[in-house]
Design the sequence.
């Protein structure tokens, strides 16, 4: 039997990020359904059964369940609780749902970390779900007001008067907004403006999007996307892989017209993440509990940082602001990181962040830093594809990012990983993961919370 310290020495560990008198918290397993283009296959999805099957963890060992989602169904507003009961967990296990735009499952995971660190729990299931193929659609405000008044009307005359006040315009449905409430601007518009501000060309965006699809296809064909669990859709076929991975060519991508700022914008359907259905889940435990149960952790979850910025002009720049903070907390530099996984809302958003991170002027002018943050080397960056190609179910992406970092650290023999994701509202989540001995260590959740066009 090889002891952990021997493994650290054997892997020439740079250093451990363990802290005295602080619990080690580990990622035991992470799974997800295939991410599918909205409107293609799913009818409804819950992933807890997959996590239970893969880990074989007794249901009564789980102390708490947390799920993230963005566009909620009123009938199942606490989807974590409904999913837990549906999966056969005890009704004595508390469950709650969080929403933080595109970093909702990041928040679910860090809430789990907090519960374990505080000694409240030893094993927590965290995850996220989004089902864009069947979003709730409301009546217009005037129609809702009339219907509520009808429900309170006491006489036939009052009811007839209210019915007579209904106009055709009142029947127009109200779709879920894809715009920032504070600015009334869609995330696509924000991404287009951000790309223009940093001089990111249409060609650069298309090249990055093509890279994402090509790398995702290569990873899929090589069987590297091992977190994906096949799912039997009632009345349909078994779904076993993501269906949005579609490598194209620069020539084909160049034919697409701007999707938001017309006719001169640079953000198109080809270089944006697409509306996606999917779910994800991870099992997070204290290291002591995991080892006692015979589990071999995939990674140590070492630290995380949340950052918020101006939702109008810096909506998608969270990774730039969050990354140095989480690295400083961990006592690391960019060169220490072996694996980078950034959420790809838009190719223009990624490229703008990389340019901001490589700018002394931006660091000095906006971040109060003496020098630039530094950019992740592309040979360490999103090597198995990203949200542009794999898809982006708003509430589920965070768990995919963290699990991917853990698997990449194991596959590539790295020790430290960094996850960063922007989100609506101008926020971001950064997470640091460490590949400890037998486990990868993730560095910090850098989440920029601003609802990625919910694209």
Sequence:
């Amino acid at each position: 039997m090889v002891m952990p310290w021997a493994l650290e020495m054997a892997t020439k560990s740079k250093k451990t990020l363990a802290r005295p008198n602080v619990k080690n918290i580990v990622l035991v397993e992470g799974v997800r359904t295939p991410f599918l283009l909205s409107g293609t296959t799913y009818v409804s999805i819950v992933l807890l059964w997959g996590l239970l099957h893969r880990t074989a963890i007794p249901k009564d060992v789980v102390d708490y369940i947390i799920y993230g989602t963005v566009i909620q169904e009123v009938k199942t507003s606490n989807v974590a609780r409904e999913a837990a009961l549906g999966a056969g967990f005890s009704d004595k296990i508390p469950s709650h749902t969080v929403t933080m735009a595109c970093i909702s499952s990041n928040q679910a995971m860090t809430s789990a970390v907090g519960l374990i660190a505080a000694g409240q729990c030893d094993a927590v299931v965290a995850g996220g779900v989004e089902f864009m193929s069947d979003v709730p659609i409301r009546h217009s405000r005037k129609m809702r007001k009339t219907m509520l008044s009808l429900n309170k009307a006491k006489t036939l005359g009052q009811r007839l008067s209210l019915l007579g006040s209904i106009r055709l315009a009142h029947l127009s449905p109200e779709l879920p907004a894809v715009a920032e409430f504070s600015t009334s601007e869609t995330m696509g518009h924000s991404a287009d403006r951000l790309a223009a501000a940093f001089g990111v060309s249409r060609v650069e965006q298309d090249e990055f999007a093509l890279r994402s699809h090509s790398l995702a296809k290569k990873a899929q064909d090589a069987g590297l996307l091992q977190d994906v669990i096949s799912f039997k859709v009632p009345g349909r076929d078994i779904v076993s892989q993501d269906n949005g991975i579609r490598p194209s060519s620069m020539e084909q991508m160049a034919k697409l017209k701007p999707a938001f700022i017309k006719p001169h914008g640079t953000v198109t359907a080809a270089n944006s993440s697409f509306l996606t259905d999917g779910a994800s889940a991870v099992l997070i435990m204290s290291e002591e509990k995991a080892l006692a149960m015979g589990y071999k952790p995939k990674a140590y979850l070492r630290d995380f940082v949340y950052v918020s910025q101006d939702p109008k002009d810096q909506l998608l720049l969270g990774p730039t602001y969050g990354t140095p903070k989480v690295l400083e907390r961990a006592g690391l530099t960019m060169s220490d990181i072996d694996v980078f996984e950034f959420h790809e809302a838009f190719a223009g958003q990624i490229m703008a962040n990389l340019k901001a991170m490589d700018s002394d002027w931006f660091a000095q002018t906006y971040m109060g830093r003496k020098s630039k943050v530094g950019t992740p080397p592309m040979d360490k960056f999103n090597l198995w594809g990203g949200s542009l190609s794999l898809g982006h179910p708003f509430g589920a992406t965070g768990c995919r990012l963290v699990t991917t970092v853990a698997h990449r650290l194991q596959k590539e023999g790295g020790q430290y990983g960094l996850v960063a994701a922007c989100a609506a509202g101008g926020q971001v989540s950064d997470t640091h993961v460490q590949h400890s001995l037998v486990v990868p260590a993730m560095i910090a959740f850098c989440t920029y919370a601003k609802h990625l066009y919910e694209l």
